[in-house]
User: What shape does this take?
Amino acid sequence: MKALFDTLNIQPNNIELYERALTHSSYANEHQTLKNERLEFLGDAVLGLLMTHHLFHQLDENEGEMSKRKAKAVSEEALVLYATHINLKTYMRLGKGERQKGANDAMIADAFEALLAAIYLDLGFLEVEKVFSRIVIPHIKETHVLKDYKSMLQELIQSGDKRNISYHVLEESGPAHQKHFKVSVKLDRVINLGYGEGSTKKEAEQFAAKDALEKGNYEIKETL
Assistant: This one.
């Protein structure tokens, strides 16, 4: 952990907060300890505020364009990118089964958000803002080339008439530490555009949007 703190350039007060931030539910279940899900919830909000503040001051764009930039910069793929630059995966605590398979992108992204929450709770907003400046801002440009299939599909749909797309969980299975979701994406809650599966709802939704896009722009516009 010391190497991680050195990378982040922080001097933590409450080490347990950071251990919890890096604890996946599979490890928590095996060792009867706290998992990182509540911290991930808080970290999502902390990251959202930091990114919004940064883009607001850096971009002379309208709300729609800034929203698109933010969506890419805080997407799961982007969080994994930031986490990779600080070698976060090395410090994650996983249960035996998950350790053998290796942490997937959803786990890594959740741990990154939880880490930001731990810094915020332990050292305050100004310190987490400094960490954000050091480990996120230098890599935001790299996120421009990441594929956010949900945003791409939304743009395609709205290039025609003003119609709505929505995501619906068809099936949720597996234990708490190893969930599996099946999701559909629908046009106006009626027309099925695509299906996706993943270990989180976000991941399944991305694959559903990707499935819809792979059916081709022509097919989707025909349904419009």
